[in-house]
Amino acid sequence: EVQLVESGGGLVQPGGSLRLSCAASGFTFSSYWMSWVRQAPGKGLEWVANIKQDGSEKYYVDSVKGRFTISRDNAKNSLYLQMNSLRAEDTAVYYCARETWSGYVDYWGQGTLVTVSS
Amino acid sequence: QSALTQPASVSGSPGQSITISCTGTSSDVGGYNYVSWYQQHPGKAPKLMIYDVSNRPSGVSNRFSGSKSGNTASLTISGLQAEDEADYYCSSYTSSSTLVFGTGTKVTVL
Prior knowledge:
The complex is a heterodimer of chains A (118) and B (110). With 118 residues, chain A is an all-beta fold.
């Protein structure tokens, strides 16, 4: 059974940093692109970033470029999102997601809430 | 990286059919047959309903179908049921190798 379990969310002050983790199991992690998708309270889904199987390619939504870094450790079956210079508008539930070759997400984690507030 | 455009809400009576549109550009929806649709109930993670424009994952009811014409994709739910009441999002691969989601549509079963 495919499982994606996020951790690392919490309350952080504006300008602060947070690192999200996603533990993957039930599939060959190193064979898939992985993504982070977020959802602000009461708002829609927003794709944040994705990373190729070997980490050689990474893409970001414009609003997080230069502030967020996606990475992975295939030996640990883990995905990460380092978030720096956090802003109030980054407040959201962050989902870890398995991405297929044609760009659809077939499995989602349960999400972890990040709140940026003073 | 503008969000794809969806109607804010669509409603229908049980048994009826409804269609949700998803409009993008030639750099996303119109440029690739890589449109997907997701259902999200309150407080839950999204669930994949349609992928690659018109394919249904195993376990998804055949009441859900997808299509595309030009820069607009559509999701049709036939034989509307109470359990279909949820938020629906489209998504597309883009020419920048990124993904983009739609603005979301709230489906209400009257």
